[in-house]
Specification:
Radius of gyration: 31 Å
Mean pLDDT: 92
Strand content: 25-35%
Low-confidence stretches: 7-18, 922-928, 940-947
Number of helices: 15
Oligomer: single chain
Bound molecules: beta-D-glucopyranose
Distance between the termini: 83 Å
Shape: globular
Length: about 1000
């Protein structure tokens, strides 16, 4: 009985707890319990949990304490009336170095009821002043083999004689490092310290190593690799780009339980030698000779008498910064899917996924046996191992066995992009259990999912995600396999919005964008960041990473500080263009243009989609200026708003004079030209609709195929959607033949390819010099899938999904679509499904946010929410109709809307929209009457006979009995302005008078 009572009580309390608001998911600088941060005013975010609809925060209170340095607390914000729960800046006493701070928050809800204080979160500061560094830079003291440049080992032993309360290691290197204490690895990050503009910004990492230290003798042991610092880098094969010698800077701060402290740091007492890693380069791979391993060198009491000394060097410490982004860590693991003997007799393992990382191998054999693993993304037409597209990157890891017992080989300072490995040096059949492929990438939180009932589209989404995983290796790279792997700005900006959906890339871009600024000279943005290609830059669509990426981060995460920090960089970039324009036209400099656009081989009739590079440049110049104006508006720099708005008007005027005919035709008649002109609002209002029609016609001309390259692709479906051509956008999305997004999917791709036809239908390859099978740029369709197909987006008046927009586009033959996203406020999602005769729209709005939801229905009376009439729902506000949508506004909560399909505005045609006289030009034009099935006349048209049927779920599109199609187009105000009839492959157009 007592037990039952207890149970009832527990359940009752649980019920009470869920009904009330609580605070959780505390983040400091966008991270849960970070250690080693150097922000002077860290920003706090928290999430509210509540099962109540409309749950809101009306006030908050933050308490910060630091038991180690103050008994009375560090900061009490007091009750602050505010609904801010994301990136609220710390405003207490100046923070001290190497200190653990605790913080808690409570909030007041809609009824002004306070929650309990949250659980405590922590953050630990890094070394905030250069003078906190007691360590000296050290380099190996022995003479180096300058050809192979084996990895140096650096070690030191020290005694711990008192009980340790805490121990923290701060480590960085010129090159890469892996550190151990008493034979145990420090941390689980790889390729540290990551890649930045080293001379100005070198990251160090902070590790809590309290548990690794032992009483008595301890050994600290570090292996260095050449890494980006001095390894071969860039397709021009630079060596020693940042310096010839690699070096280590390491400091361990120990606090004993008695309050005393000690520092162990790199200095002239360390010892150096070489070991098993005989060669290691990012592109070429690593050679490990296990016979040369210094057994026990990372353990205490090792005899290093014969080791060399170290050189203390005078490298600066003024460039040191704490780590801002997530470190590269091991992620997914893959067992062999298939073991193949190729026609050429090679032993090949297929891991089933084109991934980036390396393979861990278990081997047993004789001393001196050599195993070679080569890496490839694809097999050729004959089924043989294909590496030509890696260009000069050897991508080969070699292991020379010590012999005897089982050995495990794993590389350290390299990575490869591969789906297949070729194994040499193992006799007999390969045992799948001995091989494991490990994906490595920056440890960003996975935030988004996009799923549909179409397996090909789901695979496309999978490929987009894997393109991101494989190329977000501390910096956004173009590709992960060939001798390139650089921070190409164009690729990064094109993909940046999509990236924000799949993973939390806030800190990742915050860090990289500071390198963008660090690399700008007179505002000019180099092609790759960090810049290892030398002088030059400002290529339209590439250099615009300086404006596009910050703005996308602001939209997705509400990170105003990032925008503030990048502001000078954005402005300097625009100024660097303004300086070189001629009559406000950007007609100078080298531009990559619409890179990798459609270009048939034997282009007899001029089908190649070549877009004038300066037309493109003018569009991006305008777009970036617009983004600068947006940023200035957000930051309250009103003088700049005025100045750059005036500039923008001149840029657009110049564009219209130079690149647009009187009838509104662009001098380049390509998809990309129309896409950019429309997406960036280059044309006067009255010319936009006809331009959009030209774009739609162009798509039809190419048989519903894309002809866009890197610059047009990200926006084409957005533009088509915006101007009422969602049907055309869906045709492009669902196109399965080249050039299209689904062509590689049909060819078995597991990542996004660099080129639309990396592998041709006959299985031969595109030219090896430029044919990566893991290039995320064309994956930039991803943000359209989330924002327009599922319809999940953020409004600019409530960035970071404070004000959520849900506007689904029913169509594309989907019967089910769902997008879910973890935002800083909590989980949100938008999904739609067609079930029998109903459309179901499901939306999740997290606490402390609100949503504007577009429901595809003719009238609000056709919509039910959880079975109830909309008008009966107090917490759902019905707004004005917009186009074919009923618009509602809601607060937090889970919503389930049901719309009778017949009631969808897309099927219930508003006759008055179409009535009118349409002027047509030439052809066998006769007037016709457009009638619906029930014989209602909706318009008098040309060229066809018989009544028309509305196409299901498509707005403004009708078919006739003979299969011809009539498509009406609307202007931005939603008014029908023209009509197009497509019959037997011939098109007629009519403009409404
Ligand atoms: C890279 C691209 C990059 C381009 C510049 C290539 O080698 O792989 O993705 O943007 O160069 O046009």
């Amino acid at each position: 009985m007592k037990k039952i009572l207890q149970l009832v009580l527990v359940q009752f309390t649980a019920l009470l707890c869920t009904a009330q608001m609580s605070v959780h998911q505390l983040r400091t600088e966008n991270t849960i319990n970070p250690i080693g941060i150097d922000a002077a005013q860290p920003r706090f975010s928290w999430q509210l949990a509540s099962t109540k609809r409309n749950a809101l925060q009306t006030a908050y209170e933050i308490i910060v304490t630091a038991p180690a340095i103050s008994k009375s607390g560090i900061w009490k914000s007091g009750k602050i009336k505010s609904d801010s729960s994301v990136m609220v800046a710390y405003k207490g006493l100046p923070l001290q170095s190497s200190t653990t701070y605790h913080w808690q928050v409570r909030v007041w809800d809609n009824d002004n009821k306070p929650t309990a204080f949250s659980e405590k979160a922590i953050f630990e500061t890094a070394l905030l002043h250069t003078t906190d560094w007691k360590a000296s830079w050290i380099e190996p003291g022995y003479e180096e083999d300058t050809i192979l440049r084996p990895s140096p080992l650096l070690r030191k032993e020290f005694i711990v004689s008192k009980k340790i309360k805490s121990a923290t290691a701060y480590i960085t290197a010129h090159g890469m490092y892996e550190a151990q204490i008493n034979g145990k690895r420090i941390g689980d990050a790889y390729l540290t310290p990551g890649w930045t503009t080293y001379p100005k910004r070198l990251q160090y990492q902070t590790y809590n190593i309290t548990d690794l230290l032992a009483n008595g003798n301890n050994a600290i042991a570090v292996t260095l690799g050449s890494g980006w610092y001095r390894g071969t880098i860039g397709f021009v094969h630079n060596k020693n780009f940042y310096g010839k010698d690699i070096a280590l800077l390491l400091q361990v701060n120990i606090t004993y339980t008695d309050g005393s402290t000690a520092i162990i740091a790199t200095d002239d007492s360390w010892k150096s030698n070489t070991g098993a890693i005989q060669y290691s380069e990012i592109y070429n791979g690593e050679t490990i000779d296990a016979r040369l391993e210094k057994k026990g060198w990372a353990l205490p009491n090792y005899n290093d008498k014969n080791w060399g000394t170290v050189k203390v060097s005078k490298h600066t410490k003024h460039n040191l910064i704490a780590t801002q982004n997530e470190l590269v860590k091991k992620q997914e693991k893959f067992k062999p899917l298939k073991i193949i003997t190729t026609p050429a007799g090679e032993k090949v393992i297929d891991f089933g996924q084109n991934l980036v990382g390396w393979v861990v191998v278990k081997v047993k054999g004789n001393k001196g046996d050599t195993i070679t693993l080569s890496h490839a993304e694809v097999l050729d037409k004959a089924g043989n191992f294909y590496t030509e597209n890696l260009r000069e990157a050897k991508a080969q890891n070699k292991y020379i066995l010590a012999g005897g017992t089982q050995e495990i080989f794993e590389p350290h300072f390299t990575w490869q992009g591969f789906r297949y490995i070729k194994v040499e040096g193992i006799a007999g059949a390969l045992n799948p259990a001995d091989f494991e492929a490990v994906a490595l990438y920056s440890n960003m939180e996975k935030t988004g999912t996009f799923t549909t009932d179409n397996v090909l589209i789901n695979q496309l989404q999978h490929n987009i995600e894997w393109g991101q995983r494989g190329n977000f290796i501390d910096i956004p790279t173009d590709c992960p396999q060939r001798d390139e792997r650089l921070g190409w700005t164009g690729d990064a900006q094109a993909f940046s919005r999509t990236a924000t959906f799949n993973m939390n890339v806030n800190n990742f871009f915050a860090k990289w964008l500071q390198d963008v600024e660090a690399e700008q000279i007179d505002g000019v943005v180099p092609h790759v960041i960090p810049n290892v290609l030398g002088a030059g830059g400002n290529s339209a669509g590439w250099s615009d990473a300086a404006t596009i990426a910050p703005w996308n981060m602001y939209l997705a995460y509400g990170d105003k500080q990032l925008l503030q920090r990048q502001y000078n960089s954005m402005k300097a970039y625009i100024e660097s263009i303004s300086k070189v324009t001629q009559q406000n036209l950007w007609v100078t400099g080298w531009h990559f243009g619409d890179w990798l656009f459609y270009k048939p081989n034997d282009d007899l009739d001029g089908s190649a989609a070549v877009t004038d590079k300066f037309l493109i440049a003018q569009c991006f110049y305008a777009h970036s200026t617009q983004l600068l104006i947006n940023a200035a508006t957000v930051l309250g720099n009103m003088d700049d708003v005025k100045k750059y708005s005036e500039l923008l008007a001149t840029i657009k005027n110049a564009f219209n004079k130079e690149y647009v005919t009187a009838n509104g035709r662009l001098v380049s008649g390509t998809q990309t030209a129309y896409v950019l002109a429309l997406n960036f609002d280059m044309l006067p209002d009255e010319q936009r609709m006809q331009a959009a029609q030209r774009l739609a016609d162009n798509v039809a001309k190419y048989g519903n195929h894309l002809t866009t390259g890197f610059l047009g692709t990200p926006y084409i479906c957005h533009v088509l959607t915006r101007f009422g051509f969602i049907d055309v956008a869906y045709k492009l999305l669902l196109q399965e033949t080249y050039p299209s997004w689904l062509y590689p999917v049909k060819m078995g791709a597991t990542t996004i390819w660099e080129r639309w036809d990396g592998q041709k239908p006959d299985s031969t390859f595109q030219t090896a010099g430029m044919n990566s099978f893991n290039h995320y740029a064309y994956g930039a369709i991803g943000d359209w899938l989330y924002r327009e197909v599922a319809g999940l987006d953020t409004y600019e008046d409530g960035v970071g999904y404070k004000h959520i927009k849900v506007k689904p586009h029913i169509g594309g033959n989907f019967t089910k679509v769902n997008a879910a996203l973890k935002t800083y406020y909590g989980n949100t999602s938008a999904g739609w499904a067609i079930e029998n005769d109903k459309i179901i729209i499901s939306v999740v709005v997290p606490p402390n946010t609100y949503a504007t939801i577009f429901l595809p229905a003719a009238n609000s009376s056709d919509v039910k929410e959880n079975g109830m009439a909309l008008s009966a729902m107090k917490d759902i506000k019905i707004m004005d109709r917009q186009g074919e949508y009923v618009v509602v506004q809601t607060g937090a909560g889970n919503y389930n809307f049901t719309i009778a399909k017949g009631a969808s505005a897309q099927n219930s045609i508003k006759l008055t929209d179409y009535v009118g006289v349409y002027n047509t030009s030439g052809g066998m034009v006769k007037s016709i009457e457009i009638k619906l099935k029930d014989n209602k006349l909706i318009a008098t048209l040309f060229g066809n006979n018989g009544g028309l049927d509305a196409v299901k779920n498509e707005k403004d599109i009708f078919t006739s009995a003979d299969g011809s199609r009539v498509t009406f187009t609307r202007n931005t105000n939603g008014e029908v302005v023209s009509v197009k009839l497509q019959s037997l492959g011939i098109g007629y157009e009519g403009v409404k008078k």
